[in-house]
């Protein structure tokens, strides 16, 4: 399998540590090509989309992991999602005047980090913590320690072509040397950003851990995909209500809604709105206006 757009999970035999490597080329470029994101926003989203893929690698349910940064500075919102089917998407909201700056400055004070696990069946679970750390990796490491009591090491990197990451997690109960965690992390910390962005998973694992016994699982393909649809947008309009939807159509001629993730545009005219609410809501609103 091509090393591009792959997730590679692995497990140490001699240390209770699991890990994963991800490299996103085409999938990341699909995100970048749909929006004219400034460099500062691309840098954040690239790391988040790699991180979401890594954290979703160990999920045991069918559904989606949603990672959100809520800020009060120039970067208002950054979202990255990964499903159990290894599809990813991302989006952001930000001030037009945003410029390159440290992450803490971009987000401002009082922001939050939110991780949501949204299963296809059952209730979603959400964890919310204050922003702690100077990078996406540090924030997530702190989040995992606080919410899961799980020692985690994340190394993330991105440029315009590639988003990549390495995840290590110490297992609460495992076999092997329980004191081996610092050694595994110390080796990981020698990995350079350009190596993470250019080398394949096999080369990285050999470069770091050729003296360790590492069990490598089959690589998994990762791709960009958006789950927006006309039906989903229609359900959102139903929540808006028939009168409100009809008012917009009467004033603007139609309702046009764009997906923040993929840029797909959905247009609802008078016939669409009547069909959505199963009666001639347009005529009813016109009559009420007179």
Automatic annotation (TrEMBL):
CDD domains: Hsp33 (cd00498). The keyword Cytoplasm applies. Under oxidizing conditions two disulfide bonds are formed involving the reactive cysteines. Under reducing conditions zinc is bound to the reactive cysteines and the protein is inactive. Pfam families: HSP33. It is found in: Cytoplasm. Belongs to the HSP33 family. This is 33 kDa chaperonin. The gene is hslO.
